[in-house]
TrEMBL record:
It comes from Oryza meridionalis. PROSITE patterns: PROKAR_LIPOPROTEIN, PROTEIN_KINASE_DOM. The chain crosses the membrane at residues 252-277. GO terms for cellular component: endomembrane system; membrane. The lineage of its organism: Eukaryota, Viridiplantae, Streptophyta, Embryophyta, Tracheophyta. PANTHER family: PROTEIN KINASE DOMAIN-CONTAINING PROTEIN, PROTEIN MALE DISCOVERER 2. It is a single-pass membrane protein; Single-pass type I membrane protein. Residues 221-243 are annotated as: Disordered. This is Protein kinase domain-containing protein. One of its GO terms (molecular function) is ATP binding.
Length: 609
Protein backbone atom coordinates (compact mmCIF):
# COMPACT_ATOMS: atom_id res chain seq x y z
CA UNK A 1 0.00 0.00 0.00
CA UNK A 2 2.78 2.39 0.95
CA UNK A 3 4.59 1.50 -2.26
CA UNK A 4 1.47 2.20 -4.30
CA UNK A 5 1.04 5.51 -2.49
CA UNK A 6 4.64 6.45 -3.28
CA UNK A 7 4.14 5.69 -6.95
CA UNK A 8 1.00 7.83 -6.93
CA UNK A 9 2.91 10.77 -5.46
CA UNK A 10 5.64 10.30 -8.08
CA UNK A 11 3.13 10.33 -10.94
CA UNK A 12 1.40 13.37 -9.48
CA UNK A 13 4.74 15.15 -9.15
CA UNK A 14 5.64 14.43 -12.75
CA UNK A 15 2.23 15.68 -13.85
CA UNK A 16 2.73 18.93 -11.98
CA UNK A 17 6.17 19.33 -13.53
CA UNK A 18 4.72 18.84 -16.98
CA UNK A 19 2.05 21.42 -16.28
CA UNK A 20 4.48 24.00 -14.90
CA UNK A 21 7.23 23.61 -17.51
CA UNK A 22 5.21 24.80 -20.52
CA UNK A 23 4.08 27.97 -18.73
CA UNK A 24 7.68 28.80 -17.81
CA UNK A 25 8.72 28.24 -21.43
CA UNK A 26 5.83 30.36 -22.65
CA UNK A 27 7.02 33.11 -20.31
CA UNK A 28 10.44 32.96 -22.01
CA UNK A 29 8.71 33.38 -25.37
CA UNK A 30 6.79 36.41 -24.14
CA UNK A 31 10.00 37.91 -22.71
CA UNK A 32 11.83 37.42 -26.01
CA UNK A 33 9.01 38.96 -28.06
CA UNK A 34 8.71 41.98 -25.76
CA UNK A 35 12.49 42.48 -25.99
CA UNK A 36 12.11 42.55 -29.77
CA UNK A 37 9.28 45.10 -29.54
CA UNK A 38 11.35 47.28 -27.20
CA UNK A 39 14.25 47.30 -29.67
CA UNK A 40 12.01 48.53 -32.51
CA UNK A 41 11.89 52.33 -32.35
CA UNK A 42 9.80 52.81 -35.51
CA UNK A 43 6.64 50.79 -36.30
CA UNK A 44 4.76 52.94 -38.85
CA UNK A 45 2.15 50.27 -39.63
CA UNK A 46 1.52 49.60 -35.91
CA UNK A 47 2.11 45.90 -36.41
CA UNK A 48 3.33 45.47 -32.84
CA UNK A 49 0.55 47.50 -31.23
CA UNK A 50 -1.22 44.39 -29.95
CA UNK A 51 1.95 42.98 -28.31
CA UNK A 52 0.79 43.62 -24.75
CA UNK A 53 3.17 43.02 -21.85
CA UNK A 54 0.20 42.13 -19.63
CA UNK A 55 -0.85 39.33 -21.97
CA UNK A 56 0.68 36.01 -20.93
CA UNK A 57 -0.37 34.33 -24.18
CA UNK A 58 1.37 35.76 -27.29
CA UNK A 59 -0.32 33.39 -29.73
CA UNK A 60 -2.81 36.04 -30.85
CA UNK A 61 -0.20 38.73 -31.46
CA UNK A 62 0.40 39.98 -34.99
CA UNK A 63 3.01 37.92 -36.80
CA UNK A 64 3.26 35.28 -34.06
CA UNK A 65 2.36 31.64 -34.66
CA UNK A 66 2.16 29.00 -31.92
CA UNK A 67 2.14 25.24 -31.67
CA UNK A 68 -1.38 23.85 -31.00
CA UNK A 69 0.07 21.36 -28.52
CA UNK A 70 2.03 23.46 -26.02
CA UNK A 71 1.40 27.08 -27.13
CA UNK A 72 5.11 27.61 -27.79
CA UNK A 73 6.00 30.24 -30.40
CA UNK A 74 7.08 28.44 -33.57
CA UNK A 75 6.86 31.19 -36.22
CA UNK A 76 7.59 34.92 -36.21
CA UNK A 77 6.68 36.53 -39.54
CA UNK A 78 6.94 40.34 -39.73
CA UNK A 79 8.12 40.98 -43.29
CA UNK A 80 7.33 44.15 -45.31
CA UNK A 81 6.46 46.29 -42.28
CA UNK A 82 9.12 49.06 -42.41
CA UNK A 83 10.22 48.20 -38.87
CA UNK A 84 13.27 50.17 -37.73
CA UNK A 85 15.73 49.15 -35.02
CA UNK A 86 18.25 46.41 -34.19
CA UNK A 87 17.59 42.71 -33.73
CA UNK A 88 17.93 42.20 -29.95
CA UNK A 89 19.96 39.44 -28.32
CA UNK A 90 16.81 38.16 -26.63
CA UNK A 91 15.60 36.74 -29.95
CA UNK A 92 17.64 33.64 -29.10
CA UNK A 93 15.22 32.78 -26.28
CA UNK A 94 12.66 31.62 -28.86
CA UNK A 95 14.06 28.09 -28.62
CA UNK A 96 11.11 26.40 -30.37
CA UNK A 97 11.09 28.77 -33.34
CA UNK A 98 10.86 27.02 -36.71
CA UNK A 99 10.55 30.06 -38.99
CA UNK A 100 11.85 33.63 -38.54
CA UNK A 101 10.98 36.09 -41.32
CA UNK A 102 11.97 39.73 -40.72
CA UNK A 103 12.68 40.51 -44.38
CA UNK A 104 12.08 43.81 -46.19
CA UNK A 105 12.15 46.06 -43.16
CA UNK A 106 14.73 48.65 -42.09
CA UNK A 107 16.42 46.68 -39.32
CA UNK A 108 20.02 47.71 -38.68
CA UNK A 109 23.07 46.75 -36.67
CA UNK A 110 24.74 43.32 -36.52
CA UNK A 111 23.06 39.93 -36.52
CA UNK A 112 23.21 38.86 -32.85
CA UNK A 113 25.19 35.72 -32.11
CA UNK A 114 22.28 34.55 -29.94
CA UNK A 115 20.42 33.78 -33.14
CA UNK A 116 22.39 30.53 -33.07
CA UNK A 117 20.49 29.45 -29.94
CA UNK A 118 17.38 28.35 -31.87
CA UNK A 119 18.13 24.71 -32.76
CA UNK A 120 14.76 23.93 -34.35
CA UNK A 121 14.68 26.76 -36.88
CA UNK A 122 14.43 25.68 -40.51
CA UNK A 123 13.93 29.02 -42.28
CA UNK A 124 15.80 32.24 -41.44
CA UNK A 125 14.92 35.23 -43.64
CA UNK A 126 16.61 38.58 -42.85
CA UNK A 127 17.02 39.87 -46.42
CA UNK A 128 16.40 43.44 -47.59
CA UNK A 129 17.29 45.19 -44.34
CA UNK A 130 20.23 47.37 -43.26
CA UNK A 131 22.13 44.79 -41.24
CA UNK A 132 25.91 45.15 -41.05
CA UNK A 133 28.91 43.42 -39.50
CA UNK A 134 29.97 39.83 -40.07
CA UNK A 135 27.82 36.73 -40.44
CA UNK A 136 27.97 35.17 -36.95
CA UNK A 137 29.59 31.71 -36.97
CA UNK A 138 26.90 30.66 -34.48
CA UNK A 139 24.49 30.31 -37.40
CA UNK A 140 26.39 27.09 -38.04
CA UNK A 141 24.71 25.71 -34.90
CA UNK A 142 21.32 25.77 -36.64
CA UNK A 143 21.67 22.27 -38.06
CA UNK A 144 17.94 22.06 -38.91
CA UNK A 145 18.21 25.07 -41.22
CA UNK A 146 17.04 24.46 -44.80
CA UNK A 147 16.73 28.07 -46.03
CA UNK A 148 18.97 31.05 -45.23
CA UNK A 149 18.18 34.47 -46.76
CA UNK A 150 20.61 37.32 -45.97
CA UNK A 151 20.71 39.20 -49.29
CA UNK A 152 20.49 42.99 -49.74
CA UNK A 153 22.13 44.01 -46.49
CA UNK A 154 25.56 45.51 -45.72
CA UNK A 155 27.21 42.41 -44.25
CA UNK A 156 31.02 42.34 -44.33
CA UNK A 157 33.89 40.00 -43.52
CA UNK A 158 34.36 36.41 -44.63
CA UNK A 159 31.87 33.58 -44.68
CA UNK A 160 32.23 31.35 -41.59
CA UNK A 161 33.66 28.13 -42.96
CA UNK A 162 35.84 29.66 -45.69
CA UNK A 163 39.63 29.35 -45.73
CA UNK A 164 39.93 32.94 -44.47
CA UNK A 165 37.54 32.39 -41.58
CA UNK A 166 38.83 32.27 -38.01
CA UNK A 167 36.06 29.86 -37.06
CA UNK A 168 37.57 26.81 -35.37
CA UNK A 169 34.63 24.89 -33.88
CA UNK A 170 33.66 21.82 -35.84
CA UNK A 171 31.09 19.07 -35.84
CA UNK A 172 31.76 15.36 -35.82
CA UNK A 173 32.64 15.34 -39.52
CA UNK A 174 35.18 18.14 -39.10
CA UNK A 175 33.00 20.70 -40.88
CA UNK A 176 33.16 24.30 -39.71
CA UNK A 177 30.98 27.42 -39.90
CA UNK A 178 28.12 27.36 -42.39
CA UNK A 179 29.43 24.07 -43.77
CA UNK A 180 27.82 22.44 -40.74
CA UNK A 181 24.39 23.23 -42.25
CA UNK A 182 24.04 19.92 -44.06
CA UNK A 183 20.26 20.32 -44.45
CA UNK A 184 20.61 23.67 -46.25
CA UNK A 185 19.06 23.68 -49.75
CA UNK A 186 18.42 27.38 -50.36
CA UNK A 187 20.85 30.21 -49.49
CA UNK A 188 21.05 33.79 -50.77
CA UNK A 189 23.94 36.02 -49.63
CA UNK A 190 23.84 38.36 -52.64
CA UNK A 191 24.34 42.13 -52.54
CA UNK A 192 26.42 42.42 -49.39
CA UNK A 193 30.16 43.16 -48.97
CA UNK A 194 31.35 39.65 -48.16
CA UNK A 195 35.00 38.96 -49.02
CA UNK A 196 37.53 36.12 -48.98
CA UNK A 197 36.90 32.67 -50.44
CA UNK A 198 33.63 30.89 -51.04
CA UNK A 199 33.53 27.64 -49.00
CA UNK A 200 33.77 24.58 -51.23
CA UNK A 201 30.91 22.96 -49.33
CA UNK A 202 28.53 25.47 -50.96
CA UNK A 203 28.58 23.38 -54.14
CA UNK A 204 26.16 21.02 -52.37
CA UNK A 205 23.51 23.74 -52.00
CA UNK A 206 20.87 23.44 -54.72
CA UNK A 207 19.80 27.10 -54.86
CA UNK A 208 22.69 29.45 -54.12
CA UNK A 209 23.15 33.15 -54.94
CA UNK A 210 26.36 35.08 -54.17
CA UNK A 211 26.26 37.96 -56.70
CA UNK A 212 27.11 41.52 -55.71
CA UNK A 213 29.81 40.76 -53.13
CA UNK A 214 33.60 41.11 -52.95
CA UNK A 215 34.82 37.50 -53.12
CA UNK A 216 38.35 36.73 -54.34
CA UNK A 217 37.95 33.35 -56.02
CA UNK A 218 34.40 33.38 -57.26
CA UNK A 219 32.77 32.85 -60.64
CA UNK A 220 29.76 35.03 -59.80
CA UNK A 221 29.54 38.74 -60.53
CA UNK A 222 31.16 40.90 -57.84
CA UNK A 223 30.66 44.52 -56.89
CA UNK A 224 32.84 47.22 -58.52
CA UNK A 225 36.38 47.20 -57.11
CA UNK A 226 36.12 50.67 -55.56
CA UNK A 227 33.13 49.61 -53.42
CA UNK A 228 34.96 46.51 -52.24
CA UNK A 229 38.16 48.44 -51.45
CA UNK A 230 36.29 50.92 -49.24
CA UNK A 231 34.60 48.10 -47.37
CA UNK A 232 37.83 46.12 -46.89
CA UNK A 233 39.72 49.16 -45.60
CA UNK A 234 37.11 49.61 -42.89
CA UNK A 235 37.33 45.96 -41.90
CA UNK A 236 41.14 45.91 -41.84
CA UNK A 237 41.39 49.04 -39.71
CA UNK A 238 38.94 47.71 -37.15
CA UNK A 239 40.72 44.35 -37.09
CA UNK A 240 44.16 45.96 -36.59
CA UNK A 241 42.84 48.18 -33.81
CA UNK A 242 41.37 45.16 -32.06
CA UNK A 243 44.63 43.19 -32.29
CA UNK A 244 46.65 46.10 -30.97
CA UNK A 245 44.40 46.42 -27.97
CA UNK A 246 44.84 42.77 -27.11
CA UNK A 247 48.61 42.57 -27.60
CA UNK A 248 49.67 45.84 -26.00
CA UNK A 249 48.93 46.70 -22.39
CA UNK A 250 50.16 50.01 -20.97
CA UNK A 251 51.63 50.50 -17.47
CA UNK A 252 49.17 51.97 -14.98
CA UNK A 253 51.17 55.19 -14.41
CA UNK A 254 51.31 55.87 -18.14
CA UNK A 255 47.58 55.31 -18.48
CA UNK A 256 46.89 57.79 -15.64
CA UNK A 257 49.19 60.36 -17.26
CA UNK A 258 47.40 59.97 -20.59
CA UNK A 259 44.00 60.42 -18.94
CA UNK A 260 45.13 63.63 -17.18
CA UNK A 261 46.60 64.97 -20.42
CA UNK A 262 43.44 64.13 -22.34
CA UNK A 263 41.24 65.89 -19.76
CA UNK A 264 43.45 69.00 -19.92
CA UNK A 265 43.32 69.08 -23.70
CA UNK A 266 39.57 68.53 -23.66
CA UNK A 267 39.11 71.45 -21.27
CA UNK A 268 41.15 73.78 -23.49
CA UNK A 269 39.31 72.56 -26.59
CA UNK A 270 35.93 73.13 -24.92
CA UNK A 271 36.83 76.70 -23.97
CA UNK A 272 38.02 77.40 -27.53
CA UNK A 273 34.84 75.90 -28.96
CA UNK A 274 32.61 78.05 -26.73
CA UNK A 275 34.51 81.17 -27.77
CA UNK A 276 34.24 80.20 -31.42
CA UNK A 277 30.51 79.52 -31.16
CA UNK A 278 29.94 82.94 -29.65
CA UNK A 279 31.73 84.56 -32.56
CA UNK A 280 29.79 82.48 -35.08
CA UNK A 281 26.51 83.33 -33.38
CA UNK A 282 27.28 87.04 -33.59
CA UNK A 283 28.26 86.70 -37.22
CA UNK A 284 25.22 84.59 -38.13
CA UNK A 285 22.90 87.48 -37.27
CA UNK A 286 24.40 89.30 -40.26
CA UNK A 287 25.12 86.42 -42.63
CA UNK A 288 22.97 83.50 -43.68
CA UNK A 289 24.14 80.11 -42.46
CA UNK A 290 25.56 77.52 -44.77
CA UNK A 291 24.03 74.13 -45.38
CA UNK A 292 25.80 71.09 -46.72
CA UNK A 293 24.87 69.04 -49.71
CA UNK A 294 26.59 66.48 -51.91
CA UNK A 295 28.34 67.95 -54.95
CA UNK A 296 27.45 64.86 -56.96
CA UNK A 297 25.14 61.95 -56.28
CA UNK A 298 27.72 59.64 -57.79
CA UNK A 299 30.32 60.40 -55.11
CA UNK A 300 30.29 60.20 -51.32
CA UNK A 301 31.49 63.81 -51.09
CA UNK A 302 30.10 66.62 -48.96
CA UNK A 303 30.76 70.31 -49.66
CA UNK A 304 29.35 73.51 -48.18
CA UNK A 305 27.00 75.75 -50.13
CA UNK A 306 24.89 78.74 -49.15
CA UNK A 307 21.26 79.74 -49.55
CA UNK A 308 21.56 79.89 -53.36
CA UNK A 309 19.92 76.48 -53.31
CA UNK A 310 16.70 78.23 -52.29
CA UNK A 311 17.16 81.14 -54.69
CA UNK A 312 13.97 80.33 -56.61
CA UNK A 313 11.88 79.72 -53.50
CA UNK A 314 10.19 82.79 -51.95
CA UNK A 315 11.28 83.67 -48.43
CA UNK A 316 8.35 84.26 -46.09
CA UNK A 317 8.57 85.89 -42.70
CA UNK A 318 7.37 84.17 -39.57
CA UNK A 319 4.82 86.96 -39.07
CA UNK A 320 3.27 86.27 -42.49
CA UNK A 321 3.05 82.57 -41.66
CA UNK A 322 1.55 83.30 -38.25
CA UNK A 323 -1.21 85.36 -39.88
CA UNK A 324 -1.83 82.73 -42.56
CA UNK A 325 -1.98 79.88 -40.01
CA UNK A 326 -4.11 81.78 -37.46
CA UNK A 327 -1.17 82.19 -35.09
CA UNK A 328 -0.16 78.56 -35.65
CA UNK A 329 -3.39 77.22 -34.14
CA UNK A 330 -4.59 75.18 -37.15
CA UNK A 331 -2.58 71.99 -36.66
CA UNK A 332 -3.32 69.19 -39.12
CA UNK A 333 -0.54 66.80 -38.09
CA UNK A 334 2.38 66.46 -35.70
CA UNK A 335 5.13 64.26 -34.31
CA UNK A 336 7.74 64.95 -31.62
CA UNK A 337 10.03 66.46 -34.30
CA UNK A 338 7.64 68.12 -36.74
CA UNK A 339 4.39 70.06 -36.66
CA UNK A 340 2.23 70.56 -39.76
CA UNK A 341 -0.07 73.59 -39.95
CA UNK A 342 -2.71 74.54 -42.50
CA UNK A 343 -3.00 78.16 -43.58
CA UNK A 344 -4.37 80.57 -46.18
CA UNK A 345 -2.17 83.24 -47.76
CA UNK A 346 -3.41 86.75 -48.59
CA UNK A 347 -3.97 85.77 -52.24
CA UNK A 348 -6.34 83.00 -51.10
CA UNK A 349 -4.01 80.08 -51.82
CA UNK A 350 -4.07 77.30 -49.24
CA UNK A 351 -0.74 76.15 -47.84
CA UNK A 352 0.73 73.54 -45.51
CA UNK A 353 3.56 74.65 -43.22
CA UNK A 354 6.09 72.21 -41.75
CA UNK A 355 8.05 73.34 -38.69
CA UNK A 356 11.43 71.62 -38.44
CA UNK A 357 14.27 71.55 -35.93
CA UNK A 358 17.08 71.30 -38.51
CA UNK A 359 18.02 72.77 -41.89
CA UNK A 360 16.62 70.73 -44.74
CA UNK A 361 16.29 71.84 -48.33
CA UNK A 362 15.79 68.68 -50.33
CA UNK A 363 12.18 69.51 -51.18
CA UNK A 364 13.23 72.73 -52.90
CA UNK A 365 14.32 70.91 -56.05
CA UNK A 366 11.08 68.96 -56.62
CA UNK A 367 8.94 70.17 -59.51
CA UNK A 368 6.16 67.93 -60.83
CA UNK A 369 2.42 68.43 -61.21
CA UNK A 370 1.71 65.42 -58.99
CA UNK A 371 4.21 66.32 -56.24
CA UNK A 372 3.26 69.09 -53.82
CA UNK A 373 5.33 72.15 -54.61
CA UNK A 374 7.38 73.95 -51.99
CA UNK A 375 6.14 77.54 -52.28
CA UNK A 376 8.26 79.21 -49.61
CA UNK A 377 10.32 78.95 -46.46
CA UNK A 378 10.94 80.83 -43.26
CA UNK A 379 14.31 80.85 -41.50
CA UNK A 380 14.21 82.73 -38.24
CA UNK A 381 15.04 82.20 -34.59
CA UNK A 382 13.46 79.85 -32.08
CA UNK A 383 10.91 78.49 -31.34
CA UNK A 384 10.49 77.86 -35.07
CA UNK A 385 14.06 77.51 -36.32
CA UNK A 386 13.01 76.64 -39.85
CA UNK A 387 9.72 76.26 -41.69
CA UNK A 388 8.86 74.94 -45.14
CA UNK A 389 5.68 76.00 -46.94
CA UNK A 390 3.92 73.70 -49.40
CA UNK A 391 0.84 73.84 -51.59
CA UNK A 392 -2.12 72.32 -49.76
CA UNK A 393 -4.54 70.37 -51.98
CA UNK A 394 -7.96 71.08 -50.39
CA UNK A 395 -9.77 67.82 -51.17
CA UNK A 396 -8.28 65.66 -48.40
CA UNK A 397 -6.19 62.53 -48.73
CA UNK A 398 -6.73 59.48 -50.88
CA UNK A 399 -7.00 57.41 -47.70
CA UNK A 400 -9.88 59.55 -46.45
CA UNK A 401 -11.80 59.18 -49.71
CA UNK A 402 -11.28 55.42 -49.91
CA UNK A 403 -11.66 54.38 -46.28
CA UNK A 404 -13.18 57.16 -44.16
CA UNK A 405 -15.87 58.26 -46.61
CA UNK A 406 -18.24 56.36 -48.84
CA UNK A 407 -15.92 56.54 -51.84
CA UNK A 408 -18.75 57.29 -54.27
CA UNK A 409 -16.84 60.15 -55.91
CA UNK A 410 -14.03 57.77 -56.85
CA UNK A 411 -15.40 55.73 -59.74
CA UNK A 412 -13.22 53.26 -61.63
CA UNK A 413 -11.87 55.64 -64.35
CA UNK A 414 -11.13 58.28 -61.73
CA UNK A 415 -9.22 55.75 -59.61
CA UNK A 416 -7.26 54.64 -62.67
CA UNK A 417 -6.33 58.24 -63.42
CA UNK A 418 -5.16 58.73 -59.83
CA UNK A 419 -3.08 55.53 -60.04
CA UNK A 420 -1.45 56.60 -63.30
CA UNK A 421 -0.60 60.08 -62.01
CA UNK A 422 0.95 58.67 -58.82
CA UNK A 423 3.04 56.36 -61.02
CA UNK A 424 4.17 59.34 -63.10
CA UNK A 425 5.15 61.26 -59.97
CA UNK A 426 7.23 58.32 -58.72
CA UNK A 427 8.83 57.92 -62.14
CA UNK A 428 9.87 61.57 -61.94
CA UNK A 429 11.25 61.19 -58.41
CA UNK A 430 13.10 57.94 -59.13
CA UNK A 431 14.47 58.53 -62.64
CA UNK A 432 14.46 62.25 -63.45
CA UNK A 433 15.85 63.52 -60.15
CA UNK A 434 19.61 63.35 -59.60
CA UNK A 435 20.13 61.90 -57.10
CA UNK A 436 16.94 59.84 -57.17
CA UNK A 437 14.41 60.86 -54.54
CA UNK A 438 12.54 58.21 -52.52
CA UNK A 439 9.40 59.07 -50.56
CA UNK A 440 10.05 58.23 -46.90
CA UNK A 441 6.59 56.82 -46.15
CA UNK A 442 4.51 56.41 -49.30
CA UNK A 443 0.92 55.59 -48.34
CA UNK A 444 -2.55 56.65 -49.40
CA UNK A 445 -2.40 59.13 -46.49
CA UNK A 446 0.54 60.94 -48.12
CA UNK A 447 -1.40 61.37 -51.39
CA UNK A 448 -3.55 64.51 -51.29
CA UNK A 449 -6.26 65.28 -53.87
CA UNK A 450 -7.03 68.59 -55.55
CA UNK A 451 -10.55 69.76 -56.38
CA UNK A 452 -10.43 67.87 -59.69
CA UNK A 453 -9.06 64.76 -57.91
CA UNK A 454 -5.54 65.16 -59.23
CA UNK A 455 -3.13 63.49 -56.76
CA UNK A 456 -0.22 65.30 -55.15
CA UNK A 457 2.36 63.48 -53.03
CA UNK A 458 3.34 65.38 -49.88
CA UNK A 459 6.23 63.76 -48.04
CA UNK A 460 5.70 65.19 -44.54
CA UNK A 461 6.91 61.91 -43.04
CA UNK A 462 10.34 62.29 -44.66
CA UNK A 463 11.47 64.95 -42.23
CA UNK A 464 10.50 63.04 -39.12
CA UNK A 465 12.08 59.83 -40.41
CA UNK A 466 15.32 61.55 -41.40
CA UNK A 467 15.73 63.67 -38.31
CA UNK A 468 14.95 61.03 -35.67
CA UNK A 469 17.49 58.38 -36.70
CA UNK A 470 20.11 58.05 -33.97
CA UNK A 471 23.64 59.09 -34.75
CA UNK A 472 22.80 61.52 -37.53
CA UNK A 473 24.23 65.02 -37.47
CA UNK A 474 21.80 67.76 -38.38
CA UNK A 475 22.55 69.84 -41.43
CA UNK A 476 24.52 67.15 -43.29
CA UNK A 477 23.04 66.01 -46.56
CA UNK A 478 24.99 63.23 -48.25
CA UNK A 479 24.02 62.14 -51.75
CA UNK A 480 20.69 63.89 -51.38
CA UNK A 481 19.54 62.45 -48.04
CA UNK A 482 20.68 62.23 -44.41
CA UNK A 483 22.60 59.03 -43.90
CA UNK A 484 25.76 57.60 -42.41
CA UNK A 485 26.18 54.36 -44.30
CA UNK A 486 29.13 53.34 -46.43
CA UNK A 487 27.27 52.82 -49.68
CA UNK A 488 24.44 55.34 -49.98
CA UNK A 489 23.51 54.09 -53.43
CA UNK A 490 22.66 50.68 -52.00
CA UNK A 491 20.48 52.35 -49.36
CA UNK A 492 18.81 54.50 -52.01
CA UNK A 493 18.12 51.41 -54.11
CA UNK A 494 16.36 49.77 -51.17
CA UNK A 495 14.29 52.90 -50.46
CA UNK A 496 13.19 53.07 -54.08
CA UNK A 497 12.22 49.40 -54.03
CA UNK A 498 10.18 50.13 -50.88
CA UNK A 499 8.38 52.88 -52.82
CA UNK A 500 7.58 50.38 -55.56
CA UNK A 501 6.09 47.98 -53.02
CA UNK A 502 4.09 50.83 -51.43
CA UNK A 503 2.72 51.80 -54.86
CA UNK A 504 1.48 48.22 -55.25
CA UNK A 505 -0.35 48.56 -51.93
CA UNK A 506 -1.94 51.84 -53.07
CA UNK A 507 -3.11 50.11 -56.27
CA UNK A 508 -4.73 47.41 -54.14
CA UNK A 509 -6.45 50.09 -52.06
CA UNK A 510 -7.77 51.76 -55.21
CA UNK A 511 -9.27 48.63 -56.76
CA UNK A 512 -10.52 47.00 -53.55
CA UNK A 513 -11.47 49.94 -51.34
CA UNK A 514 -9.83 48.15 -48.41
CA UNK A 515 -7.37 49.69 -45.97
CA UNK A 516 -3.77 48.36 -45.88
CA UNK A 517 -4.34 46.92 -42.41
CA UNK A 518 -7.65 46.33 -40.68
CA UNK A 519 -8.73 44.44 -37.58
CA UNK A 520 -11.70 43.05 -39.51
CA UNK A 521 -10.00 42.08 -42.78
CA UNK A 522 -6.36 41.75 -41.72
CA UNK A 523 -3.40 42.56 -43.96
CA UNK A 524 -4.41 43.74 -47.44
CA UNK A 525 -1.40 42.27 -49.25
CA UNK A 526 -1.83 38.86 -47.62
CA UNK A 527 -5.51 38.82 -48.56
CA UNK A 528 -4.86 39.96 -52.14
CA UNK A 529 -2.15 37.38 -52.81
CA UNK A 530 -4.79 34.65 -52.54
CA UNK A 531 -6.54 36.08 -55.63
CA UNK A 532 -3.59 37.38 -57.67
CA UNK A 533 -2.31 33.99 -58.83
CA UNK A 534 -5.23 33.24 -61.17
CA UNK A 535 -6.82 35.64 -63.66
CA UNK A 536 -10.35 34.44 -62.93
CA UNK A 537 -9.85 35.45 -59.29
CA UNK A 538 -9.06 39.11 -60.11
CA UNK A 539 -12.73 40.12 -59.97
CA UNK A 540 -12.87 39.19 -56.27
CA UNK A 541 -10.49 42.08 -55.55
CA UNK A 542 -12.85 44.77 -56.86
CA UNK A 543 -14.55 47.20 -54.47
CA UNK A 544 -18.25 46.19 -54.23
CA UNK A 545 -19.21 49.88 -54.51
CA UNK A 546 -17.78 50.00 -58.05
CA UNK A 547 -20.26 49.13 -60.78
CA UNK A 548 -18.25 50.09 -63.85
CA UNK A 549 -14.92 48.33 -63.31
CA UNK A 550 -13.12 47.74 -66.60
CA UNK A 551 -12.05 44.08 -66.68
CA UNK A 552 -9.23 44.76 -69.14
CA UNK A 553 -7.85 47.51 -66.90
CA UNK A 554 -8.29 45.25 -63.89
CA UNK A 555 -6.06 42.61 -65.44
CA UNK A 556 -3.35 45.16 -66.20
CA UNK A 557 -3.46 46.64 -62.70
CA UNK A 558 -3.39 43.20 -61.02
CA UNK A 559 -0.37 42.19 -63.08
CA UNK A 560 1.38 45.42 -62.05
CA UNK A 561 0.49 44.77 -58.40
CA UNK A 562 2.06 41.32 -58.65
CA UNK A 563 5.28 42.91 -59.91
CA UNK A 564 5.31 45.61 -57.22
CA UNK A 565 4.75 43.37 -54.20
CA UNK A 566 7.31 40.74 -55.18
CA UNK A 567 8.97 39.53 -51.99
CA UNK A 568 12.41 39.93 -53.61
CA UNK A 569 13.15 43.68 -53.99
CA UNK A 570 15.63 43.07 -56.82
CA UNK A 571 12.86 41.56 -58.95
CA UNK A 572 10.57 44.57 -58.65
CA UNK A 573 10.60 46.62 -61.88
CA UNK A 574 11.41 50.31 -62.03
CA UNK A 575 8.65 52.90 -61.90
CA UNK A 576 9.68 53.79 -65.44
CA UNK A 577 8.57 50.34 -66.61
CA UNK A 578 5.48 50.28 -64.39
CA UNK A 579 4.33 53.68 -65.66
CA UNK A 580 4.84 52.57 -69.26
CA UNK A 581 2.66 49.48 -68.68
CA UNK A 582 -0.12 51.57 -67.14
CA UNK A 583 0.07 54.28 -69.81
CA UNK A 584 -0.13 51.65 -72.53
CA UNK A 585 -3.11 49.80 -71.07
CA UNK A 586 -5.26 52.39 -69.27
CA UNK A 587 -7.34 55.01 -71.07
CA UNK A 588 -7.45 58.38 -69.26
CA UNK A 589 -8.53 60.50 -72.21
CA UNK A 590 -10.86 63.53 -71.70
CA UNK A 591 -13.79 61.48 -73.05
CA UNK A 592 -13.21 58.86 -70.38
CA UNK A 593 -13.00 61.53 -67.68
CA UNK A 594 -16.27 63.10 -68.88
CA UNK A 595 -17.98 59.71 -68.81
CA UNK A 596 -16.44 59.20 -65.38
CA UNK A 597 -18.24 62.20 -63.91
CA UNK A 598 -21.70 61.06 -64.93
CA UNK A 599 -21.03 57.47 -63.85
CA UNK A 600 -19.79 58.59 -60.45
CA UNK A 601 -22.99 60.51 -59.72
CA UNK A 602 -25.12 57.66 -61.05
CA UNK A 603 -23.36 55.18 -58.79
CA UNK A 604 -23.78 57.49 -55.82
CA UNK A 605 -27.52 57.81 -56.47
CA UNK A 606 -27.92 54.02 -56.77
CA UNK A 607 -25.89 53.37 -53.62
CA UNK A 608 -27.79 55.97 -51.57
CA UNK A 609 -31.17 54.71 -52.70
Amino acid sequence: MARLLGVSFLVAGLGCALLVAPSESAADDVSALLAFKKAIFEDPLAKLSDWNSKDENPCGWTGVGCSPFDSRVVTLILDHNTLMGPIPKGIGKLRNLIMLNLSTNQLDGPIPIEIGDMPKISKLDLRANRLDGAIPPEIGNLTSLTELQLSNNSLTGTIPGSNDSSMVSTNRDGQIGLCRLTQLTDMDLSYNYLAGDVPTCFTQIRRLSLVGNCFENNDTTNRPDNQCENSQKGNESSRVDGNQQKSFQQPLWLLILEVITAISLLTVLTLCTIAGLRRCKARSSRNSGTWTRAISWKENTVISIDDDLLANVPKISRQELAEACEDFSNIIGSTHDTVVYKGTMKDGSEIAVVSLSASVVEMARLSHENVAKMVGYSKESDPFSRMLVFQYPPNGTLYEHLHDGEGYQLSWPRRMKIALNIARALRYLHTEMQPPFAVAALTSSSVYLTEDFSPKIIDFERWRALLTKPGLSSGSIVNGSFNNIIDSRHRRFMDIQANTFAFGVILLELISGRAPVSKDTGDLVDWARKHLDQTEEFIKLVDPKLMNANHENLGIVCNVVNLCIDAEPCRRPSMNMITAILEEGIDTSPATVLRDSSLAWAEAEIAIS
